[in-house]
Design brief:
Number of helices: 44
InterPro entries: TPR-like_helical_dom_sf (IPR011990), TPR_rpt (IPR019734)
Strand content: under 5%
Helix content: over 70%
Protein name: Outer membrane lipoprotein BamD-like domain-containing protein
Number of strands: 2
Strand order of the largest sheet: 1-2
Organism: endosymbiont of Galathealinum brachiosum
Shape: elongated
Pfam family, one: TPR_6
Keywords: TPR repeat
């Protein structure tokens, strides 16, 4: 081997080593990665002798007869040409003083030809992967990307273990990505990610793998890929608990942020923040996790999905409530609510912020001082705003519960930030809220604290005055054992207010209000004293203060039982109350009632002493002094009662009648007035008026039994008054409404029937007698001797017309027809008398027995006196008479038997006019036989 050949081979080896060992890794930005594939690495140096070396290699290839190093020379020429092409492409000058585009293009094409020649000359060579690698570069430089891809595909296929396989796959992935062949690009990137974690292209491949998955809408896979990338950055300490570390350069920061951006996009296409927790179930908590929540929330914000943004930020706070970043996330949520104008959510979120991170919370206790300092301004602002908001809301609603809510927020501020300069004003507002929520004791403490424990401020005097007003309220409510203490506290507070704020406009009103408080606290002596201060002070000209003082004074005198003095004071107070509006009229009415009560109390004192006349006069004076008083009616009623007790019926009835004329008292005491008037009218003999009042009382009766009794008494009173028609109408009304008590109902029937005894037509009498009999019969076991007597009497009276109808039938020709008619009426009459006898009332039994006997006797006589047929001879007439006697005799005998029943009753010591009449009949019919003692057999009532 000659010297020239040795020199050429040595130079070739140097270039091979340079080309293979001195490639420089170019820093790629996130923007570069997203927009275009990564470029090929550029040679580190440019040799001025490169063109000369190419000429030498070409001469070598053309002239040498020995092909031992032909392949190396051929490849080296192509490599040198490729280097020149790369330098020109990147704007590197100094290539032999510069070259035009045509020359450079020729060099590029020459390198491609040399590589292809090499591959044709040495097919299947073990290092052809490097040739294919360089050929792909050359094709890329001339823009023939398909052929570049073809060359790289051959490397992948034939040289899967090539030391350039990671770069080849990455270049393939870039080309495929640009061509939007995302699935194939994913496969190319995946080779590097799976097999070549140590490759300098690993992170970029991982990043582009995620993009390829995202472009295919494989969002779950995308998330897993980018989480792996973020795991690397966290391991490299480029991410800490506060986010991306400050030491990270701009390019790397953009790379991380863009990875988070794709992550957030993927999450937004899935289930948003709800997707995050499952992703980290097996991964554990990561430092970059807050960045994922933040980026997703900001993505929603950019898309104006404010509610989703806020939900995402809040999701982090719920998942990691103790994180130092949670307040910041909560603030981001609040900002989202504000930007989205979701006002209702802002309120709740602020409340939650204070609850979660406020002073005294579990979170606050666990944080470092520097972290507390960070959130303190937000806490102050939120608590202040919440206090004002809820106070305004309470003032609008006027509800105690709303004021209590506002008070709670003011207390939160005061407990959390007691040294803030606005604490004094917040304390005053806190007291206001407590007062309006009726928490008067707490309000009092806070008013006095605001007035006297802070340096002087705008609300000092107002707070002191409010404390006095609160005492007034409390003095109305204290328990007895607290009264003295509270009274003294109120007095001390009044003195303190006067000394501290002597120029305050409320000073005169303080004394008046104190007097009112003392009155409410039932300290009537001190109330009198304070009221007199205002009454006696001529310098005080405020009409309302004077009026209030007189009212307090009057009330105090009344409570002290100084009723004469109270009456005078009430009279003055009433004169000082105008008649401008409803409140004034209401106050006048109240004071008038108290004036009346003062007089009424004087009357009661007289009554208690037994001075009934003076008491009655005083009671009546109530109506004269206070005619509109609500107790006027009571006083007059009491006066009437006293006059009744003194048997002055005329005066009492006059008072009661006057009361009835007044609408209010007439309604209030209507029943009592009627009750008393019944007594008074009865005593005066005005029974008709008494009856009328009883009727009124019946209308008031709530119980049926009371109404029944009063209705009966009304009827009886009308009877007593001689107004029988009115009484009868009441009895009829009674009968219709009340069938019980049974006996009283029967009695009512009797009285009605008696009323119609002298009235015409008689049918009303007969109707009511029948009603009486029917009603009594329905009585069953309730029937009494009295009811039977009345029913028997009615039945007996009802039988008389029936008997009369029997008697009226004349036995004229034709006798047979008329006799049949008379017997029929006889049966009816006997039946009616039998009904009377069924009652077994002696008086009517004897009468019925007599009348029954007389019916038979009448029939016998009627037969004998009946009309004789015309044209009879003397003998025929005599014979006819004998026949009539034979017909009449049985009836005469039955008459004797029935009358004998009455005669027998004398042995039972029963002897009345009907028995007497029966005996007379017996003596007239059988004068001789009657003296004998005979057995009287039972008789048949109905004959045939």
């Amino acid at each position: 081997m000659n010297a020239a050949l040795k020199k050429g081979i040595l130079l070739l080896l140097v270039f091979i080593v340079t080309a293979c060992g001195n490639e420089v890794k170019k820093e790629i930005t996130v923007k570069d990665l997203v927009i275009s594939p990564i470029d090929y690495p550029l040679a580190s140096t440019v040799s001025a002798e490169r063109l000369h070396a190419i000429e030498q290699y070409q001469t070598y290839l053309q002239k040498t007869e020995f092909k031992t190093h032909y392949g190396e020379a051929l490849r080296r020429i192509a490599d040198l040409e490729l280097e020149i092409s790369e330098e020109e492409r990147h704007g590197v000058h100094g290539v032999g003083g510069g070259a035009d585009e045509a020359a450079i293009q020729a060099i590029k094409l020459s390198s491609i030809e040399h590589y292809n020649t090499y591959l044709r000359t040495y097919p299947g060579h073990e290092k052809n992967d490097l040739i294919l690698y360089q050929l792909a570069k050359a094709y890329s430089l001339v823009g023939e990307m398909d052929k570049a891809m073809q060359a790289m595909d051959e490397i992948v296929k034939d040289y899967p273990e090539s030391r350039h396989i990671d770069e080849v796959q990455f270049r393939r992935g870039e080309i495929l990505f640009v061509d939007q062949e995302f699935e194939q690009a994913e496969q190319a990137y995946a080779v590097i990610v799976t097999k070549y974690q140590q490759s300098p292209l690993y992170e970029k491949a991982l990043y582009k793998l995620g993009w390829s998955q995202f472009k295919q809408s494989h969002y779950n896979e995308t998330l897993q890929t980018y989480l792996s990338l973020l795991d690397i950055k966290e391991a490299e300490q480029k991410i800490d608990q506060y986010g991306i570390t400050a030491s990270v350069n701009r390019s790397e920061k953009d790379f991380i942020i863009d990875s988070l951006r794709v992550t957030s996009l993927s999450l937004s296409y899935l289930n948003g923040y709800k997707t995050i927790a499952p992703l980290f179930k097996d991964r554990g908590d990561k430092l970059y996790l807050p960045l994922i929540y933040e980026q997703l929330g900001r993505l929603y914000t950019r898309k104006e999905r404010y509610s989703d943004a806020a939900d995402t930020f809040m999701a982090f706070t719920k998942k990691y409530p103790m994180s130092v970043l949670s307040p910041s996330f909560h603030s981001l949520a609040l900002l989202a609510y504000k930007d989205g104008k979701l006002n209702s959510e802002i309120l709740n979120s602020k409340i939650l912020y204070v609850k979660n991170y406020g002073i005294g919370s579990k979170y606050w206790k666990q944080q470092k001082l520097e972290d507390r300092v960070v959130i303190r301004p937000d806490l102050i602002r939120h608590v202040r705003e919440l206090s004002f908001h809820f106070h305004a809301q309470a003032r609008k609603s006027k509800k105690q519960k709303d004021y209590k809510i506002a008070a709670t927020w003011y207390l939160t501020f005061l407990n959390s930030f007691p040294k803030e300069k606005e604490a004094a004003n917040m304390n005053f507002l806190y007291a206001d809220a407590l007062y309006d929520s009726h928490s008067y004791k707490q309000a009092l403490v806070e008013y006095e604290k605001s007035a006297y424990q802070y340096p002087a401020h705008a609300k000092s005097a107002e707070a002191g005055y409010a404390a006095l007003l609160t005492y007034n309220v409390l003095l109305k409510q204290p328990k007895q054992k607290q009264l003295v203490q509270l009274k003294q506290q109120s007095l001390n507070s009044s003195i303190r207010f006067s000394n501290t704020f002597p120029e305050d406009k409320h000073a005169p009103a303080v004394i008046t209000k104190t007097a009112e408080n003392l009155l409410q606290a039932k300290n009537y002596v001190l109330a009198t004293e304070f009221a007199k201060r205002i009454i006696d002070n001529q310098l005080i000209t405020q009409v309302d203060l004077k009026r209030t003082a007189w009212i307090v004074y009057a009330h105090a005198q009344y409570e002290l039982e100084l009723y004469v003095e109270a009456e005078k004071a009430y009279a003055v107070a009433i004169r000082r109350v105008p008649r401008k509006n409803k409140n004034d009229l209401k106050l006048r009415a109240e004071l008038t009632d108290k004036l009346a009560a003062s007089i009424y109390k004087q009357a009661e004192i007289h009554k208690a002493k037994g001075e009934n006349k003076l008491a009655a006069i005083a009671f009546l004076r109530v109506g004269k002094a206070a005619p509109s008083s609500s107790i006027r009616a009571t006083a007059e009623y009491d006066a009437a009662t006293l006059y009744m007790g003194m048997n002055d019926w005329a005066t009492s009835s006059s008072i009661l009648e006057s009361m009835r004329m007044a609408p209010s008292s007439g309604m209030q005491f209507a029943q009592g007035i009627s009750t008393k008037l019944v007594v008074a009218y009865t005593e005066l003999g005005h029974f008709d008026k008494a009856a009328k009042e009883l009727g009124v009382l019946a209308g008031f009766a709530k119980k049926p039994e009371d109404h029944r009794k009063l209705l009966w008494q009304t009827a009886e009173m009308y009877e007593k008054a001689g107004q029988k028609t009115k009484a009868n109408n009441i009895y009829i009304k009674y009968i219709k409404k009340y069938s019980k008590p049974f006996l009283q109902s029967i009695e009512a029937h009797h009285r009605v029937s008696e009323y119609y005894k002298t009235k015409k037509p008689a049918k009303q009498r007969k109707s009511w007698l029948n009603k009486l009999v029917s009603a009594e019969k329905r009585g069953g076991k309730q029937r009494t001797d009295r009811s039977r007597y009345l029913a028997a009497s009615a039945s007996f009276e009802l039988a008389q017309p029936v008997i009369l109808q029997f008697q009226k039938v004349k036995l004229s020709i034709p006798l047979k027809k008329n006799l049949r008619n008379k017997k029929k009426r006889m049966e009816i009459a006997i039946k009616s008398l039998k009904k009377v006898m069924d009652y077994k009332v002696a008086e009517f039994s004897t009468a019925s027995t007599y009348q029954m006997g007389e019916i038979y006797n009448h029939l016998a006589h009627s037969l004998m006196e009946s009309q004789r047929p015309k044209g009879l001879s003397v003998d025929e007439l005599e014979q006819y008479d004998i026949l009539l006697e034979e017909q009449a005799y049985p009836f005469e005998e039955k008459s004797v038997d029935i009358h004998s029943i009455n005669a027998k009753r004398t042995k039972q010591n029963i002897y009345d006019e009907w028995i007497k009449k029966s005996l007379a009949v017996l003596r007239s019919i059988q004068p001789i036989q009657y003296s004998k003692h005979e057995k009287i057999e039972s008789y048949v009532l109905i004959t045939h």
